[in-house]
Design a protein that fits this description.
Layout (H helix, E strand, L loop, with lengths): L38 E7 L8 E5 L5 H15 L3 E4 L2 E5 L3 H10 L3 E4 L5
Parallel strand pairs: 1-5
Antiparallel strand pairs: 1-2, 2-4, 3-4
Length: 117
Amino acid sequence: MVAKKLSSADEVIYSTYPEFEYEYANIREPDTLKPGDQQLVIALSKRKMDGAPITVITGFVGKRIDLIGIGQELSDVCRTCVSTRMYEIILAGDVRKRAYIYLRNKGYGVQFAIGKD
């Protein structure tokens, strides 16, 4: 989905032009699927934050801006901090039930992760 390394022709070493903006021509995000076509997995993790529980939502397929929007909505609903990474949303605390109910009401296919952390 994301290019691992840019080719030598695409690498920029240095530019003094003040209005220069680097364009990532080789990196393309997939189109955002409809909520009914998404299959999200909600899990609880205690490893990433030094033992503090966090809720991790994975399985999102789509553009990063849409992922950030969903994360902000979940932050408001769950009343907690949110962070988004590549195709996953991380919420502080154990808010799995709130996130499940919210995403289910929005029409997403949601399930809880099976197994241990």
